[in-house]
Amino acid sequence: MFVDHIQIHAQAGKGGRGCVSFLREKFIPKGGPNGGNGGKGASIIFRVDPNVDNLTDFYYNPNLRGKNGEHGMGKNCYGVAAEDAIYRVPVGTIVWRVPIAETTAMGDAARHDKGFTDFSKLSDEEAASFSMPKKQRMEFDPEVFELVADLTEPGTDFVLCEGGKGGRGNTTFKSSKNRVPIEYTDGDDGEAGTFYVELRKIADAGLVGYPNAGKSTLLTKVSNAHPKIAPYPFTTLTPHVGIVELPGFQRVTVADIPGLIEGAHANVGLGHDFLRHIVRCKLLLFVLDMAGSEGREPIADLQTLRKELDLHDPTLSERPWLIVANKMDLEGAKEHLKHFKTRYRKVEIIPISAESGDGLETLKRRLGEIVCEGKFKPEPARKKRGSADSAE
Ligand SMILES: Nc1nc2c(ncn2[C@@H]2O[C@H](COP(=O)(O)OP(=O)(O)OP(=O)(O)O)[C@@H](O)[C@H]2O)c(=O)[nH]1
Ligand SMILES: [Mg+2]
């Protein structure tokens, strides 16, 4: 299972209560106050771990809870602080806070779902026609949700909800005026909230193409990744990131995402969901079936792909991009490429055959030059007159 976005609820632990206690010992009839403070509640912490690939753990456990701190005790013993609850998240995790009003609606719906409807108050007819209301989940909206963290550095800890402070024991209330304090304070509540957690994989370059264009074959040949390859569309169902090793100890990460088709932005095919993973790529590689097998038309394919990207996120059409003309070993590819070049004169085109390996060294060299050395020519295409495709 691959989960790359999920709504969760987090509740940090409550601080322990302060203690009211007095020293009682033989021959010390009026020993002073000795109530200790409560311990701190557990915080909910996200630890960025490069060994974690996705957010599946939260799918099985969307309610994160921190333990409460222990109460203070006599003899000035402090309550033990609860151990922080640490959840490992992948590099590239983004955390959004879901607005409060939404949280309440979700809570009500959730209670309803768990069977809190009082059936004894319903008539037989009503009970028979009763259907559980759907959980009211607000669609993700970056205008409404508040961005709280973008976790891109492996090893960093992010405190999602801080545990509550422990309460004060009566010792802390002792003063010259009040020698026998019976005051104490309760521990603070831990922070809580509903969050939308999203994974946007981080890669230097992203492979974008129609199903069967050969993206996974290409990634397998140039990197350490092994996505499934098969001659049917939508073989790849989850994103994969591979590391391409280059001379001089340089490395470029490349993301393979599931194939896109026309209407992907409106959820046709596998939808636009996976486009979230190329939003962070500095360079976009459009992988085209230059042989036009299975009735594909490379020029139309590129136009559709660029349009879908633009509809998903208009900033994507301003990214540096180039064409990887694949399947050059097949018949008709050379003629298609000739025609393609006359149409896209300003765009860099790298002809390859992912199957036979031709052109892969050139592609790797260019990846190194562009990503590691910043050598990119021509300039990235800029959007003109509302078109996603201005580099023709
Ligand atoms: N002849 C030839 N076939 C290729 C080449 N590259 C890929 N193929 C074949 O094309 C088919 C699809 O390849 P994949 O790598 O799975 O394509 P994909 O773009 O990852 O497809 P999806 O995961 O469905 O989006 C496989 O049968 C590959 O063997 C190539 O350069 N030449
Ligand atoms: Mg694939």
Could you characterize what this model shows?
With 392 residues, the protein is of the alpha/beta class. 18% of the residues lie in helices and 20% in strands. A six-stranded mixed sheet has the order 10-11-9-12-13-14, with helices on both faces. Bound molecules: guanosine-5'-triphosphate and magnesium ion.
| Annotation field: number of helices | 7
Which architecture name of the largest domain does CATH use?
3-Layer(aba) Sandwich
Domains (count): 2
Radius of gyration: 29 Å
What tags apply to this protein structure?
single chain, alpha/beta, Spo0b-associated Gtp-binding Protein, Chain: A, 6-stranded mixed sheet, 5-stranded mixed sheet, 7 helices, 14 strands, binds guanosine-5'-triphosphate
